[in-house]
TrEMBL record:
Residues 5-48 form the Mycothiol-dependent maleylpyruvate isomerase metal-binding domain. This is TIGR03085 family metal-binding protein. Pfam families: MDMPI_N. Coiled coil: none annotated.
């Protein structure tokens, strides 16, 4: 089983357990909103464009709200669990599901887990952590472009990747999964440490990071 499929299964199980009204780290969204978001991404390519392009965000929201209100929560979770349709690009292009959905599902899985009381980071397979590190390394400049200060991400083994190049800069250290959540704007819920000028640290901890 790929990591994308494993994350999908665990994510769907958690949606089932918590029901439609549980909080998430996505501001203003419940678990039902997050489930509808995944369904839009995977089953409504006409509307998914608004996830990345703000001029289309209103249309995407209207489709997402219609799905949430027009289907039962059980149906939404079943759609998430089943994944993209067989004849979608995810089903037709080998490896695309793993490439695109591994991190998407991981982040949103954590958006639910870490919005609940008493959470702790999961112990992830070493190859998944390494995959996440590679994605963080390749995407750091894009994800951290809005930081008001420079950022360097540091793996616990000492490897580093530059995010935004500027001074003063902050060194952020953590496991790859924690760095990913930090870089995607979940700073308050990422188990990382900071080194640098305290004013710069405060700025990066409250910056709007991510894609």
């Amino acid at each position: 089983m790929t990591h994308a499929r494993a994350e999908r299964a665990e994510f769907s199980d958690l949606l089932d357990r918590l029901g439609p009204d549980a909080p998430t780290l996505c501001e203003g969204w419940t678990t039902a909103d997050l489930a509808a978001h995944i369904v839009v991404r995977e089953r409504r390519p006409d509307a998914a464009i608004g996830v990345a392009l703000k001029p289309f965000a209103g249309y995407t929201k209207s489709v997402q709200d219609a799905l949430k209100n027009g289907k039962s929560y059980r149906e939404l979770v079943d759609d998430v669990r089943q994944g993209p349709p067989r004849f979608s690009p995810y089903g037709l292009v080998p490896g695309l599901d793993a490439l695109v959905n591994t991190l998407e599902l991981f982040i949103h899985h954590e958006d639910i887990r870490r919005a609940q009381p008493g959470w702790d980071p999961r112990e992830l397979p070493a190859d998944l952590e390494e995959t996440i590190w590679k994605r963080v390394s390749s995407g750091a400049r894009l994800m951290l472009r809005r930081s008001p200060v420079g950022v360097v991400l540091r793996h616990p083994d000492g490897r580093r990747v530059g995010g935004k190049k500027a001074e003063p800069h902050v060194v952020v250290t953590g496991e790859p999964a924690e760095l990913l959540l930090f870089a995607f704007g979940r700073q308050d819920h990422a188990r990382v440490t900071y080194e640098g000028d305290q004013t710069a640290i405060d700025q990066v901890r409250t910056a709007k990071l991510g894609m």
